[in-house]
User: Which sequence fits this backbone?
C-alpha cells in the first residue's frame, strides 16, 4: 500500500446528511471500510451536515429549483478538506460532478422497489376512488395519476419519520417510500406491500448508495475501490446515462431501471407529464460494456417520440 490508513488521530472524515436514513447509510459505509481494512471505529469520524434542502421544509422541492440542493454544503466541505468522503443516496445525485470531486464507488444495491404505505389499504389496487395520496415526488405523482386519474395527490415532504407521522395524523390515506430506505432503517414492516417495477418503475439509481471523494485523494481512492460493487456500477452507468441524456434531476418525472442478465444489460426508461396525462416508455438490451450507450439510446428514442411540448413545464 502506498497510502497511510486512517488512525484515531487522523480519522477518515465521512460526510453525510443528518436524517436517520442518511446516518444509517454512513454507518453501513463505515462498517464496510472497517471490515475491508480491519480498522476500529475510532479511525472514522461520521460528520452530519445540514444542507439547504434539509433547512427548507415548508416548500415543495420543485419550487426551490437548482440541482444539488442536498449536496452543495457537503461538497464544499470536501473540497476544503473538512470532509474526506461523502455518502449519498444516488437517487438524489445530479448526473454531473463538481470540478475536483469523483463519484465512482457504489455499495451493493438494495431493493429498488417503491413501498406502498397506508393505514388502511393493503395495496394500490385497494384504494377507493378519490382517496388521498401523499407524495412530494413528481415521478410517483405522475405514475400514479397515469394509472389512477381519480386519486387526489397532496404534497408530502420530510424524511421517512415525518411522512409516517403525517400519515398517522390522517393527512393522506397512503404514501410511497423507497423499500431500500425502510430496509436500511430496519423497518421493512412499514410497507404494506412492495410495488413491482412493472407497476411503478423506480427512480434512476433508487436503492443505491454512492461514495464521493476528492479526485486527488489517493487514500480515499484506494480505500473506496475495496468496497465498490461492480454490478451496481454497471446498472447505474446505464440508468444515469439515460438520465443525463434527458437532462433530468431527481425531481423530474423520469423513471429508469437496469438489470443485468448474464453478460448483457437491460434497461427500461419512462418519461411522464407531471399530471400523469401521458407516459412514454421504451426498453432495450446491450452488452454490459455498452451500458452507458444503452442509456443514451433509450433516452434518444423517447425524446424523438415525445411531442415537442413534453418538457415545456420545466421552463
Ligand atoms: N428523495 C429522498 C430519498 N432519497 C433516497 C431515498 C430512499 C433510499 C434510496 O432510494 O436509496 C429517499 C426516500 C424515499 O424515496 O423514500
Assistant:
Amino acid at each position: 500500500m502506498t497510502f497511510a490508513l486512517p488512525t484515531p488521530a487522523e480519522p477518515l472524515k465521512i460526510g453525510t446528511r443528518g436524517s436517520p436514513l442518511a446516518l444509517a447509510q454512513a454507518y453501513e459505509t463505515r462498517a464496510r471500510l472497517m471490515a475491508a481494512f480491519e480498522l476500529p471505529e475510532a479511525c472514522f469520524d461520521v460528520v452530519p451536515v445540514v444542507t439547504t434542502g434539509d433547512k427548507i421544509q415548508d416548500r415543495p422541492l420543485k419550487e426551490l429549483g437548482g440541482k444539488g440542493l442536498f449536496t452543495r454544503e457537503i461538497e464544499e466541505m470536501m473540497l476544503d478538506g473538512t470532509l474526506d468522503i461523502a455518502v449519498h443516496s444516488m437517487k438524489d445525485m445530479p448526473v454531473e460532478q463538481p470540478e475536483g470531486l469523483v463519484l465512482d464507488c457504489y455499495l451493493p444495491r438494495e431493493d429498488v422497489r417503491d413501498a406502498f404505505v397506508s393505514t388502511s389499504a393493503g395495496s394500490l389496487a385497494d384504494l377507493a376512488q378519490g382517496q388521498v395520496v401523499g407524495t412530494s415526488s413528481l415521478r410517483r405523482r405522475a405514475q400514479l395519476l397515469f394509472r389512477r386519474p381519480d386519486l387526489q395527490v397532496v404534497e408530502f415532504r420530510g424524511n421517512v419519520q415525518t411522512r409516517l407521522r403525517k400519515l398517522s395524523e390522517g393527512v393522506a390515506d397512503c404514501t410511497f417510500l423507497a423499500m431500500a430506505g425502510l430496509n436500511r432503517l430496519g423497518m421493512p414492516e412499514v410497507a404494506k406491500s412492495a410495488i413491482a417495477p412493472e407497476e411503478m418503475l423506480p427512480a434512476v439509481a433508487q436503492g443505491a448508495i454512492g461514495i464521493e471523494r476528492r479526485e486527488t485523494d489517493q487514500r480515499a481512492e484506494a480505500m473506496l475501490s475495496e468496497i465498490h460493487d461492480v454490478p451496481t456500477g454497471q446498472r447505474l452507468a446505464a440508468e444515469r446515462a439515460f438520465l443525463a441524456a434527458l437532462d433530468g434531476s431527481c425531481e423530474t418525472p423520469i423513471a429508469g431501471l437496469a438489470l443485468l442478465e448474464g453478460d448483457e444489460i437491460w434497461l427500461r426508461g419512462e418519461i411522464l407529464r407531471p399530471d400523469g396525462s401521458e407516459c412514454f416508455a421504451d426498453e432495450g438490451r446491450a452488452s454490459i460494456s455498452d451500458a452507458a450507450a444503452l442509456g443514451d439510446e433509450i433516452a434518444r428514442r423517447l425524446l424523438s417520440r415525445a411531442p415537442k411540448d413534453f418538457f415545456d413545464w420545466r421552463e
